[in-house]
């Protein structure tokens, strides 16, 4: 099946046909760097990281552009409040953003432009829009005249007349129509500024993305992404100014991720249910947060709560525990090839799962990057792998070869999702260490009781074995028995 993506512009899933065969250009709106990033930013950036990774995995030569908005009212206001230059604020939070994204395991985009490095291109587009009658200068400001672009609001499907009826010109604005938007703002005393044909000033928010995307991807490119909150006005205005200036289609496929809810309520600073990425990562492993985000389709809303993060961590533990068991098995003997008829029934089932794993994973991701379905395919393979491991005593050469193949496939597909990059034993140990900091039994005591239980069961004293299991369970420790021995995890 060919890759199909949901295009916000058409409201339908469409087969992806690249503008240039074998290549894919993608622009994603980055952050305004005036504060630490929240989990809404985490979701958007993880989502488009996965899309970037999958396009590359599918064989496309991807140019991925993600910008920094480093000049904005919020940045200026914070700089004034702290008594520093705006660049001090911008640089501080660019560095913080980069740190957060690195912790979440994001691949670096091809290009990460800053708005202030593209002032010349911004001015050039504005001059073109004025010359074509799409924009006008008003006392040092420049505005886009929305009534000159008949297709305005084609992305958000809103009605211009209805919106104009309820709109008004704010105090200090010098525009003709309340729906017109700023392309250039004359600077106020004490604000940063650049010279322009309309006097000293700075760019509006929307125009910067048109300039940066055109610079690196051309006048028309494949994908433009961001959160659903950017559909209007930001992306709508990008279309108007870009197509107004160039006279051609701006973006072919518009992709938007869903909102993050907090305990079933929309995340909002005004509601006080606002969490930074750093606050979340103080409590949860970064890969757990990433796994949680990928557990829902990117266009669906996702409900953030400690319970849902706990559930995500449990799911990730299941996979890492399986991978750790595979590693332990493969350490015993080097895998070799052998006829498939030496496989046990569970191994034969796993062989079939292995043959289907990549095609089914690709089928899921080709259906509008359905990471939730792709994870479901991986979990099915984990279940079959655990059955295979449970019945594998002294493994045959064919069984070892199969185990090595499954391990390699999880590494390959995990890299597409940005998961399973840690050593399984090390990751599990780190998670256990974090959990055991909250329980009242030491790891060495757990191990001692596991040995005692094994000896009791060997002596057929099953009552004592059950007592030890129940004792540990009361303390939040779950025992996991397998053919390779007994391991434990904190619940």
UniProtKB/TrEMBL annotation:
Catalytic reaction list: tRNA(Cys) + L-cysteine + ATP = L-cysteinyl-tRNA(Cys) + AMP + diphosphate
GO molecular function: cysteine-tRNA ligase activity
Organism domain of life: Bacteria
Binding site for Zn(2+): 29, 209, 234, 238
Main location: cytoplasm
Enzyme Commission no: 6.1.1.16
Record-linked Gene3D superfamilies: Cysteine-tRNA ligase, C-terminal anti-codon recognition domain, HUPs
Top-level EC class: ligase
Domain Cysteinyl-tRNA synthetase class Ia DALR, residue spans: 360-428
Cofactor requirement: Zn(2+)
Residues the record lists as binding ATP: 269
Cofactor binding note of this UniProt entry: Binds 1 zinc ion per subunit.
Keyword Nucleotidyltransferase: no
Sequence motif 'HIGH' region, residues: 31-41
Compartments in which it is found: Cytoplasm
'KMSKS' region, short sequence motif: residues: 266-270
Keywords, in A-Z order: Aminoacyl-tRNA synthetase, ATP-binding, Cytoplasm, Ligase, Metal-binding, Nucleotide-binding, Protein biosynthesis, Zinc
Similarity comment: family membership: Belongs to the class-I aminoacyl-tRNA synthetase family.
Quaternary organization: Monomer.
NCBIfam families: cysS
Protein name per the record: Cysteine--tRNA ligase
Gene giving rise to this polypeptide: cysS
């Amino acid at each position: 099946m060919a890759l199909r993506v949901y295009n916000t512009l058409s409201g339908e899933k469409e087969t992806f046909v690249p503008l240039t065969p074998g290549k894919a250009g993608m622009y994603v709106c980055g952050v305004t760097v005036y504060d630490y990033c929240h989990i809404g930013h985490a979701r958007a950036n993880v989502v488009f990281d996965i899309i970037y990774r999958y396009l590359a995995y599918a064989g496309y030569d991807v140019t991925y552009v993600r910008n920094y908005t480093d000049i904005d009212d919020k940045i200026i206001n914070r700089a004034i409040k702290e008594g520093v230059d705006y660049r001090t604020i911008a640089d501080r939070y660019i560095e913080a953003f980069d740190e957060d994204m690195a912790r979440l395991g994001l691949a670096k985009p091809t290009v990460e432009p800053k708005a202030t490095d593209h002032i010349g291109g911004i001015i050039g587009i504005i001059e073109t829009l004025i010359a074509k009658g799409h924009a006008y200068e008003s006392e040092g400001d420049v505005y886009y005249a929305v009534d000159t672009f008949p297709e305005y609001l084609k992305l958000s499907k809103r009605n211009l007349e209805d919106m104009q009826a309820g709109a008004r010109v704010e105090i200090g604005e010098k525009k003709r129509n309340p729906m017109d938007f700023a392309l250039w703002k004359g600077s106020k005393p004490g604000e940063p500024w650049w010279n322009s044909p309309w006097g000293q000033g700075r760019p509006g928010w929307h125009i910067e993305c048109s300039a940066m995307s055109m610079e690196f991807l051309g006048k028309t490119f494949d994908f433009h992404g961001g959160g659903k909150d950017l559909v209007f006005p930001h992306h709508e205005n990008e279309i108007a100014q870009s197509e107004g200036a160039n006279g051609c289609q701006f973006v072919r496929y518009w992709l938007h991720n869903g909102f993050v809810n907090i305990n079933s309520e929309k995340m909002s600073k005004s509601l006080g249910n606002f969490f930074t990425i750093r606050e979340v990562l103080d409590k949860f492993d970064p890969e757990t947060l990433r796994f949680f985000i990928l557990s829902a389709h990117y266009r669906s809303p996702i409900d953030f709560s400690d319970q849902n993060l706990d559930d995500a961590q449990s799911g990730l533990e299941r996979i890492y525990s399986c991978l750790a068991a595979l590693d332990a098995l493969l350490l015993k003997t080097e895998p070799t090839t052998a006829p498939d008829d030496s496989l046990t029934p569970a191994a034969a089932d796993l062989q079939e799962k292995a043959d289907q794993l990549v095609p089914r994973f690709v089928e899921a991701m080709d259906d509008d990057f359905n990471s939730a379905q792709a994870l479901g395919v991986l979990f099915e393979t984990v279940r079959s792998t655990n059955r295979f491991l449970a019945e594998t005593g002294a493994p045959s050469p064919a069984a070892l070869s199969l185990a090595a193949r499954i391990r390699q496939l999880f590494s390959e597909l995990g890299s597409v999702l940005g998961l399973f990059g840690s050593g399984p034993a090390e990751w599990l140990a780190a998670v256990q260490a974090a959990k055991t900091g909250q329980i009242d039994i030491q790891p060495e005591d757990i191990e001692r009781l596991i040995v005692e239980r094994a000896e009791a069961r060997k002596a057929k004293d099953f009552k004592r074995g059950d007592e030890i299991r129940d004792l540990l369970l009361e303390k939040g420790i779950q025992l996991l028995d397998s053919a390779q021995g007994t391991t434990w995890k904190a619940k």
